[in-house]
Write a structure and sequence with these properties.
Blueprint (H helix, E strand, L loop, with lengths): L2 H15 L5 H8 L3 H11 L5 E4 L5 E4 L12 H10 L5 H14 L1
Antiparallel strand pairs: 1-2
Helix pairs in contact: 2-3
């Protein structure tokens, strides 16, 4: 995996999680050092509003106000997903919820 591919995936993770993700967790996920992840964060913060926090519970996250794909779903799409969620498997319901968070 190239640095560019890793950075793309890091942004996708941060868009989905929307909370502080420890650098150590990202390093383990990608099989790199925390120093590499910090370097990635330095690069990414030139294009994304990243917030960092030190200590227990710290890490990196996208700013709460940043929602690049917000409003991509029309109301009829949102309503259809919400109707499907109660009958979906737990895994599908979780995926639906992530879609709503990302695009609605």
């Amino acid at each position: 995996m190239t640095a560019s591919e890793r950075r793309e995936e890091i942004i996708q993770i941060l868009q989905l999680k929307r909370y502080f993700v420890p650098m150590r967790e990202l390093a383990e996920e990608f099989g790199v050092s925390t120093r590499t992840i910090r370097s990635d964060m330095n690069f990414l913060e030139t294009n994304y509003p990243l917030e960092t926090a030190e200590g227990n519970g710290g890490g990196v996250k996208l700013a709460d106000w940043y929602k690049p794909h917000r409003r991509m779903f029309r109301q009829k799409h949102i309503d259809a997903i919400k109707r499907a969620m109660p009958n979906a498997t737990e895994e599908d319901a979780e995926a639906f919820q992530e879609l709503l968070q990302m695009f609605a």
